[in-house]
Design brief:
Helix 4 packs parallel to helix 5. Strands 4-10-9-8-7-5-6 form a seven-stranded mixed β-sheet, sandwiched between helices. A four-stranded antiparallel β-sheet has the order 13-14-17-16, covered by helices on one side. It has a two-stranded antiparallel ribbon with strand order 1-2. Helix content is 40%, strand content 17%. The protein has two domains: 134 residues, Aspartate Aminotransferase, domain 1 (Alpha-Beta Complex); 255 residues, Aspartate Aminotransferase, domain 2, CATH 3.40.640.10. It is of the alpha/beta class and 407 residues long. The termini are far apart. The structure holds 4'-deoxy-4'-aminopyridoxal-5'-phosphate.
């Protein structure tokens, strides 16, 4: 059986709308993905039938909401193959998950004289929190560069690892280059040096392997809105022993066991890290998105995305003066490019007048742009519903724009 893209496209209502009078061609999926009808319906159903705060009420609605929220946690556990449900912490998104670890792990385990390592290929969300933590804790960080193909320099990484390395943070897939990093190998190398690893899976969990136990990631983070779910919900997975060992990040709400004037004791996992009323509908909507994706054959989804990606590379390179950045050994879903003599922002804006949505700029990866020697790029990024026609429209629209620009 091969994946039925027409049927999948029919599930996403926004794909059938017009933008500037033209059928929408949505190629900004690395920024956020569109939502299938089942996710939209699930959100409406929650607010229509059982909206309530969770874990506290004795009443019917509260019980329904609590059950659905905790079932969502199980859905995430199953999808990423975590050992325990309580290893799944709901957060606002990847950024909050990383900040949580940078703060809590930093407080508990990082001391002056220690070192951490992250890479030149990180989103600012996996770069800045570590710089902040290093400043707070008085420790040194190293940044692993990438080569001209967009592959991490693992030889340099190996040399940077030493007995002082406490933590290694890197992304599984780069949002600006599309590189699929050899996560298992990097994690093995880090573990051999005794370091704990945080894997940023914001661009990976929906496109490539996402089995946290096979990867052996200590912390694994992603955002709901990039995997066809709602905004404002994300995941921090952590191995039980680590989550148990680190202190809470924020106080209040469900994270307490007992509060007295003298002292507060903390709730067990996962609630220890979930202060305040959580994004209940976000968690339930995320589970609906994961169930939707899980009902498809993931190998076929990946094969389809790879075929569209390869077609995109081929067709775009036929445009004179167009340069694609990064050609890593393994890459997925993201095509970053520039056209000689055309500002990326102008190209993006003119493509929008044709209904084509791409992203332009530095993509929250200024160190990557610096390494590439550019101010920004145009980025076309794919999701499972993109097809060969989307690429054809993109390429044809670029040709029209170039004509307008007199090129
Ligand atoms: N890491 C990567 C690799 C990303 O692509 C993004 C989002 N572009 C983030 C982190 C941050 O995700 P969020 O804004 O959802 O917190």
């Amino acid at each position: 059986m091969t994946i039925d893209i027409q049927k999948i496209r029919a599930d996403f209502p926004i794909l059938h709308t017009l933008v500037n009078g033209k059928p929408l061609v949505y190629l900004d999926n690395a920024a956020t993905t569109q939502k299938p009808q089942i996710v939209i319906d699930t959100i409406v159903d929650y607010y229509s039938r059982y909206n309530s705060n969770i874990h506290r009420g004795t009443h019917h609605l509260s019980n329904l909401a609590t059950e659905a929220h905790e079932a969502a946690r199980k859905t995430v556990q199953r999808y990423i193959n975590a050992e325990h449900t309580h290893e799944i912490i709901f957060t606002r998104g990847t950024t909050e998950s990383i900040n949580l670890v940078a703060y809590a792990f930093g407080e508990a385990f990082i001391n002056p004289g220690d070192e951490i390592i992250f890479t030149m290929m990180e989103h600012h969300s996996n770069f800045v929190p570590w710089q902040m933590m290093c400043e707070r804790r008085g420790v040194k960080y190293h940044v692993v560069p990438f080569d001209t193909q967009g592959d991490l320099r693992l030889d340099i990484f190996e040399n940077l690892l030493n007995e002082r390395t406490r933590l290694v943070a890197f992304n599984h897939v780069s949002n600006a280059l599309g590189t699929i990093n050899p996560a298992q190998r990097i994690i093995q190398m880090a573990h051999a040096a005794g370091a704990v690893v945080l894997l940023d899976a914001a661009q990976a969990v929906q496109h490539v392997d996402h089995d946290v136990r096979a990867l052996d990631a200590d912390f694994y983070v992603f955002s709901g809105h990039k995997i066809y779910g709602p905004t404002g919900i994300g995941i921090l997975y952590g191995k039980e022993a680590l989550l148990d060992a680190i202190p809470p990040y924020q106080g209040g709400g469900e994270m307490i066991e007992q509060v007295t004037v003298e002292k507060t004791t903390y709730n067990k996992l996962p609630f220890k890290f979930e202060a305040g009323t959580p994004n209940i509908v976000g968690a339930i909507g995320l589970a609906a998105a994961i169930d939707y994706l899980d009902a498809l054959n993931f190998d076929e989804v990946m094969a389809h995305e790879d075929a569209v990606l390869a077609y995109g590379h081929k067709k775009l390179l036929e445009i004179e003066g167009l340069k694609i950045y990064g050609n890593a050994k393994r890459h997925t879903s993201i095509i970053p490019f520039n056209i000689e003599g055309v500002h990326h922002y102008d190209l993006g804006t003119l493509l929008d007048t044709r209904g084509v949505a791409v992203r332009t700029g530095h993509h929250c990866t200024q160190p990557i742009m610096t390494a590439l020697g550019v101010e920004g790029t145009v980025r076309a990024s794919l999701a499972l519903y993109n097809n060969h026609e989307d690429i054809d429209v993109l390429v044809e629209s670029i040709r029209q724009v170039l004509k307008i620009l007199g090129r």
